[in-house]
Amino acid sequence: MVAKRDSRILLLGCGAVGTVAARHLAASKLVGSLTAADVSADRAKATVAATRSKKVRPLALDLEDDGALRDAVRGTSLVINAALPKYNLAIMAAALEADVDYMDLAGGGKDQLALDPTWKRAGRTAPSGWARTPASGTCSPATPRTGWTRSTP
User: Fold this and answer.
1) Widest CA span in the chain
2) How big is the chain by its Cα radius of gyration, in Å?
3) What pLDDT is attached to residue 147?
4) 52 backbone φψ class: left, alpha, beta (φ>0; ψ -120 to 50)
5) End-to-end CA distance of the chain
6) In terms of residue numbers, what domain contains 110?
7) Cβ neighbours, 10 Å, residue 41
């Protein structure tokens, strides 16, 4: 599978890690649109400003609101979780329900890893702990279902 240039990414969490991720994603030609979501509308807007890209939009989103989370996930290609770990399982459930790939920048707890068979049966991927992975800065989630592709600067 070749990555589509119209990928729609939802980034959850616009703190330091989320903002850096947003800047890299916004610069990629493989990303068609990026929604930077955070409970703080100001933080989401600041992340958008940091990208200097017209393909990035802010979204005020309270992850405690399951309905709003599911609505935000629906229609995306990939959910990238840079939010607090207490939301990991709810975000994973929303992504799986919407048939969307998931990437967690900080997770990887046993509860998440135990869901691997469920994600495999669904034909989706859900890598965790991506921000801690050695050499992750040289790869991108261009083709989550089939593997990682090497990024070019």
Assistant:
1) 39
2) 14
3) 43
4) left
5) 22
6) 7-150
7) 14
In terms of DSSP bridges, do strands 139-143 and 147-150 run parallel, antiparallel, or are they unpaired? antiparallel
Distance CA 146, CA 97 (A): 20
Number of domains in the chain: 1
pLDDT at 113: 79
Structural contact between residues 64 and 48, judged by C-beta atoms closer than 8 angstroms = no
pTM as predicted: 0.81
Splitting the chain (153 residues) into consecutive groups of 10 residues, what average pLDDT does each group show? 68 96 94 97 98 97 98 96 93 95 81 84 80 46 43 38
Domain membership flag for residue 38: yes
CA distance 115 to 120: 9
Q: Which contacts qualify for 83-88: CB closer than 8 Å, 24 or more apart?
A: 83/12, 83/13, 83/18, 84/13, 85/109, 87/12, 87/63, 88/112, 88/128
The CATH code of the domain that includes 124 is 3.40.50.720
User: Distance (Å, rounded) from C-alpha 149 to C-alpha 72?
Assistant: 26
Q: What is the pLDDT of residue 93?
A: 94
